[in-house]
Amino acid sequence: MQSVKRHLTAGLLLLGAGMAQAAPTTDLPPAPPIPESAMQQHIQQMVEEDYAWEVKKRDVANELELERMKSEIRKLRGEDNVQARAQPVSMPEDSGTSQSSSGLPHVLLESNIGGLSRVAVSSADGSSLRYVSPGQRFTLDGRQFQLVRDKISGLTIKETGR
Questions:
Q1: CA dist 2 to 10, 12, 14, 87, 130, Å?
Q2: Long-range contacts formed by 132-135: CB under 8 A, 24+ apart
Q3: Of residues 80, 83, 60, 82, the one with CA closest to residue 72
Q4: Which of 18, 65, 54, 43 is nearest to 116 (CA)?
Q5: Four-CA torsion 69, 74, 78, 81, nearest 10 degrees
Q6: Which residues is 147 bridged to in the sheet?
Q7: Which of 4, 23, 136, 139 has its CB surrounded by the most CB atoms within 10 Å?
Q8: In this structure, what DSSP letter does residue 96 have?
């Protein structure tokens, strides 16, 4: 009988302890802002420059491969003995700027660089990359934008004006 009383007492204590727990909360206060140091800004600048360099490198490699393929086609057609004609080179930058002005930039990824939360934002045509903090205003392709954190859709980019 005494063991039954102990089991009932232990069961009631465990049941009461389970109900005494606090309910989980989703409203957390925002973290205090961390001031940027010169090293963090330098790391951010290095990442942006590396991305720009990789884009240029990829463009040059694509252009070189295209020229190789054109050369192979000329060889197969037997046009290799014909004197090469000078062809005007079109500048892709002119068409790229008109396309980028029509679209909004997009968020690539959210990361932690040098202890700061940063979001990689790319232009509409993918030619430039910026790392910005949520809530920060930035200029991309000559236009002003702001990165806004929304509870429903997450990170969004809004145009603030010129």
A1: 12, 15, 18, 102, 72
A2: none
A3: 80
A4: 43
A5: -120
A6: 157
A7: 136
A8: H
In one-letter notation, the amino acid at residue 69 is M
3-state secondary structure of 91: coil
The predicted model scores a pTM of 0.42
Confidence at residue 63, expressed as pLDDT on a 0 to 100 scale: 94
- CA–CA dist 137, 122 (Å, integer): 14
Report how far apart, in Å, the C-alpha atoms of 152 and of each of 54, 105, 131, 148 are.
34, 20, 22, 12
Contact 96, 141 (CB under 8 A): no
Helix runs in 20-153, H state only? 38-77, 92-102
Q: Indicate left, alpha or beta for 149 from its phi (over 0: left) and psi (-120 to 50: alpha).
A: beta
The 10s digit of each residue's pLDDT in 4-31 is 888 888 777 776 665 656 666 677 777 7
DSSP 136: -
Question: Alpha-carbon distance 139 to 23, whole Å?
Answer: 43
Can you tell me the distance from the alpha carbon of 42 to that of 37, in angstroms, rounded to the nearest whole number?
Answer: 9
User: How many angstroms separate the CA atoms of 53 and 129, rounded?
Assistant: 11
Q: Could you tell me the two tokens for 40?
A: 């963090």
